Amino acid sequence: MKKDRINIHFTVIENGIKIPISTRHGRYPNLMFLLKDELMLESFGECGGVGRCATCVVKTKEIRGNSAIKDRNEPATLSKLGFHETNIRLSCQIYITADLNGAEIEILEI
């Protein structure tokens, strides 16, 4: 099966409401763009996905593989806001891969 045809299913929690999401690998460059598009979030991801503004902070559960690793600007940006937990992430730094299958993503208000 081709990588881009793999269906990925996970749950997003926004304001206490669970929303099932289904997508495919490669449909969005990262989780931030998917959330903005699917949930029409305003003032979310203002820096465009470079990991500096922290307007796309999420709490993750059940993310596996490489998607669970913080990389690039993410650790420094989160640290400036006082977030040191491994499950607090910038959605712009999470790629849409099978690592998200079955995950739960909660959008945090900052």
From TrEMBL:
InterPro entries: 2Fe-2S_ferredoxin-like_sf, Beta-grasp_dom_sf. It comes from Flavobacterium pokkalii. Gene3D superfamilies: 3.10.20.30. This is Ferredoxin.
